[in-house]
UniProtKB/TrEMBL annotation:
PROSITE patterns: BRO1
Name used for this protein in its record: BRO1 domain-containing protein
Domain annotation BRO1: ranges: 1-418
Annotated region (Disordered), positions in chain: 377-418
Annotated InterPro entries: BRO1_dom (IPR004328), BRO1_sf (IPR038499), BROX (IPR038898)
SMART domains: BRO1
A Pfam cross-reference name: BRO1
Alphabetized PANTHER family for the sequence: BRO1 DOMAIN-CONTAINING PROTEIN BROX
Domain of life: Eukaryota
Family to which this protein belongs: Belongs to the BROX family.
Basic and acidic residues biased stretches: 397-410
Organism, scientific name: Paralvinella palmiformis
Length: 418
């Protein structure tokens, strides 16, 4: 089911040597710099491969963030706050929607923010990888659900805790633009909720529960799409088309199951209108899916309209609608309303929230003495020639392909959970 999800590319970054030369005045300080360089390289390697396991990612992330601690936070009790080393190194990162020209800042918080952004993207890609198996187990379905909630939590942490601390305001359309971050938060939360809907359908929960969950999920995807409306259409057209597909398919599901609820309550005329509305949303989603494949722009090549979860719904809607029309003609003789019934539904089960991200504890290498051993007065002066030499575009990240299957799930609903 990997092709059910749109995924934007990872951010690229220039190497960081953490060569502070004379500023790292003893072996303890030099070891911190050496370990940080190695931890950064290891983390970037893991992030580039969504087929790696969560435990490996967690360990490498924890190692890097814990080693960054003294470069961001002061360990001097007489001078708390930001570290004296915070602006000692230049970092260069691209933005996923803006091509290969990097943004640069002398700021360890900038590096941590961008690295965490990539980690959140990794969780979404890993979730797509696990979901792309032919028959994911229940434990694997739970992993997909958890990964998407973790991703939403990391994006939330970046938006609420890190962006305001940056030296420079984020560029419009950059990854740290509040609109981009808000879009990711809503999208990841909605995609996690998709797993809940799949479970509810497969276990044949009541139509009212499925309808309410689908309605709430469509609203989350709408929130994500609304965040992108004011951005340059050239960079977000593909992403927005995917979100609009999800909006329309979940409104189609919501109206379909709501139609079943109305029919069971002998409101056949309203049921017909609800199912007609479902059919219209289904057609809109199909058009979105077809358009997506021809829109140019960043991101993976999803094929959501080809997935069984989508293809199964159309015939179900038409069969239920035909049944309602027949029964209305023979039994109920109710007038079909002009306006669609209101989906003023509030799900009481299965709603998803981001999982809160908590930074790891500082590395034990960071002691007050170790912090004191860095002498910023001995940092080499900025060299314009070196900076010019190291400027320019960065090559995109060589991401490992997600291993997935194109086979249909062997269950009734077309969902990934059996």
């Amino acid at each position: 089911m990997a092709h059910w999800f749109h995924r934007n590319p990872l951010k690229a970054t220039a190497p960081a040597t953490f060569d502070l030369r004379g500023a790292a005045s003893n072996s303890q300080a030099q070891k911190i710099c050496s370990d940080l360089r190695g931890a950064r390289g290891n983390l970037l390697e893991v992030i580039s491969n969504p087929n790696r396991d969560v435990e490996t990612l967690t360990k490498t992330l924890s190692s890097y963030i814990s080693l960054q601690h003294g470069f961001i936070n002061s360990l001097d009790e007489t001078n708390p706050g930001d570290s004296k080393l915070r602006h000692a190194v230049r970092f260069r990162w691209t933005n996923t929607l803006l091509g290969n020209t990097p943004t640069e800042q002398y700021d360890f918080i900038f590096d941590q923010t961008c690295m965490l952004f990539n980690v959140a993207l990794w969780y979404t890609k890993h979730a797509a990888k696990v979901a792309g198996k032919e028959e994911p187990s229940m434990d694997e379905a739970k992993e997909v659900h958890k990964c998407l909630r973790i991703a939403a939590g990391i994006f939330t942490y970046i938006k609420e805790n890190l962006v305001a601390r940056l030296m420079d305001s984020p560029e419009k359309g950059s990854d740290l633009d509040s609109r981009i971050l808000a879009a990711y938060i809503s999208q990841c939360t909605a995609e996690a909720q998709e797993i809940t809907i799949a479970r509810a359908i497969e276990l044949k929960h009541s139509a009212s529960i499925v309808s309410a969950l689908a309605y709430e999920t469509a609203r989350l995807f709408t929130q994500s799409d609304d965040c992108l409306k004011t951005l340059d259409e050239k960079i977000v057209a593909r992403w927005r088309n995917y979100l609009q597909f999800k909006i329309n398919i979940y409104y189609a599901y919501a109206y379909n199951y709501h139609g079943e609820v109305l029919l069971a309550a002998d409101k056949c005329g309203e049921a017909i209108k609800s199912l007609q509305e479902s059919d219209q949303y289904y057609e809109k989603a199909w058009k979105n899916g077809k358009e997506y494949t021809s829109i140019k722009g960043p991101g993976s090549n999803a094929k959501p309209h080809e997935h069984l979860f989508f293809r199964k719904l159309g015939p179900i809607v038409k069969r239920t609608l035909d049944k309602c029309v027949r029964e209305n003609g023979f039994i109920y003789h109710q007038k079909v309303p002009v306006d669609a019934p209101q989906l003023e539904l509030k799900a009481t089960y299965g709603l998803v929230a981001p999982e809160e991200f908590t930074p790891p504890e500082p590395s034990p290498l960071w002691t007050a003495e170790a912090y004191k051993s860095f002498d910023i007065s001995r940092l080499p002066p900025l060299d314009p020639k070196t900076e010019q030499k190291e400027s320019g575009s960065l090559p995109p990240v060589k991401e490992k392909e997600i291993n997935s299957t194109n086979k249909d799930p062997k269950n009734n609903s077309g969902c990934i959970i059996s």
